[in-house]
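Typical record was shown:
=====
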Amino acid sequence: MTTAPSPAAIIPPVARLIEALRRLPGIGPKSAQRLTFYLVRAPLEEVTELGQAIAELRSQITYCSVCHNITVANPCGICADEDRDRRRICVVEEPLDVSALERTREYHGLYHVLHGVISPVDGIGPGDLKVEALLARLRAGGIDEVVLATNPNLEGEATAMYLARLIAPLGLRVTRLARGLPVGGDLEYADEVTLSRAIAGRQEM
C-alpha cells in the first residue's frame, strides 16, 4: 500500500503546487499530490505546455459585454450571430451551462450568464449576479421569451423564482426547463438527450 509522503519530505516548490491544486474545485489533498508528482515526472515540454495554456487562458479571454459569457472576442460569437433567434434569451448560471446547452443543438436563441445563483448561506445576493444586466436587456425590447435554465437544486430554484417575479411586470413569457433534469443535478453533467427533452418541454412560470 502506497502512503503519502510526510509534509517534512515535500520540498517547497512541490508543496506550493499541491496547495495551489487543492484550491481547485473537485481536487482533494490526495488528488493534488498525485497530479503534482505526475508533473514532476512528466516531460518538460508537457509541463511547459500546461503552464502556457493556463497563462493564455487568463490573458486571452474576456467576458461578452452583452451576455457575460466567456469569449475571445466582444461580443461573443453567439451574440454576434445574426442567425440566432434574437427573440429568446436563456438564462444560465455559468459559462459551462452554455456549452452544455449548445451541445444539444436544440436551442437557437441567445443566452445570459448570471455567474452564480442566489445563496444567502454563501453571502451571495442578487447584487452579486448579472441580474441588472439581464433586466436592462429585457427592457430594451425585442425579447418574447425568457427561458430560466438555472440548475434544479435549492439555490437554482430560488434564483429562478426571484427572476420570474422581476420579469413578470415586463409582460414577457417566462419558461423553466422541464423536469427531465434530476433535482439536485447540474446542467454541465447532464447528457444531450436529457437536455434536449428539458428544452423542448420547458414550462411557463
